[in-house]
Automatic annotation (TrEMBL):
Keywords: Signal
Organism of this sequence: Limnohabitans planktonicus II-D5
Protein name: ABC transporter substrate-binding protein
Signal peptide as annotated in the record: 1-28
UniProt record similarity statement: Belongs to the UPF0065 (bug) family.
Domain of life: Bacteria
Amino acid sequence: MNIIRHLTRRALGLAALSMALLSPGLQAQDKPPLKILVGFPPGGSADVLARMVADALRDDFGTIVVDNKPGAGGRIALNMTKAAKPDGQTVIILPSGPMVLFPHVYKKLDYDAVKDFTPISQIARFQFGVVSGPASNVKNVAEMAAKAKTDPTSASYGTPGAGTLPHFMGVLLEQSASIKLNHIPFQGGAPANNALLGGHIGYKFDVVSETAELHRAGKVRIIAVTGGQRDPQVPEVPTLQESGINMDATAWFAMYGPAGLSAEALSRLEKAMMKMARNPAMKEKMVKLGYESIGSSSAELAAAQKTDLDRWEKPIKATGVQLD
């Protein structure tokens, strides 16, 4: 009987070991999926990018859920991230605005853009174009500046609204080039674009990928790009710095976690994002969207955020824009 009981226990032990070895997926399923929060509706740029990232990280993280929580310019999703456990199971992918503009724009924010989050990786960077329409018909920034000084009524630029990044791009250019422009806010990007094409305003500031086709068709002219290097979508267009204006301003998407993210979780996410950015297929996808693939370290993202927080303080204060 003792021999039988011994053999039975041994058989059960071997069976359990076999199940553990043959079914690693069962153990993996015990771990909750990685949740990527997006503070904007499905189909938008942040959502599209988050789903690209999710597809790229599945080999490293298994099940990944992209959870859209739109509203309040991304602040709903940010506060969910802030409240999440710092175990690496909940992160957010968002544009730079809520992290570098909102702290200057809103009188009261229910989050601290630096203290309440852990920077993980800057995913992609993109720049804006200074776009000249039929009403201004200028070919370069020098002409724009000269015309603005001699004919101030011609120097109107349209944006999707007061307090948006294109609005502040215009203010930063005013300060950098010592010129005066007339800001015309619209209810969204499409009305601003129609006003430009219709000759009702002279200029607009827009993401290069949104204007490149109109530029190539000759309907508008991108006279400069706002970043530190030329944009491959319009390689013939100079930067503002090449045009004699000391201005270098871009926008970006990044991944953040809640404050106090464990070192192990941060390292795993950071390494996966850097690996993803080096993938040629991912780089190609980014280019098609008009983005430059970055895949920065956590420290590099923190430094980029600090630079942009400082960069935008002066132009935002100059507008007097303060939102509740």
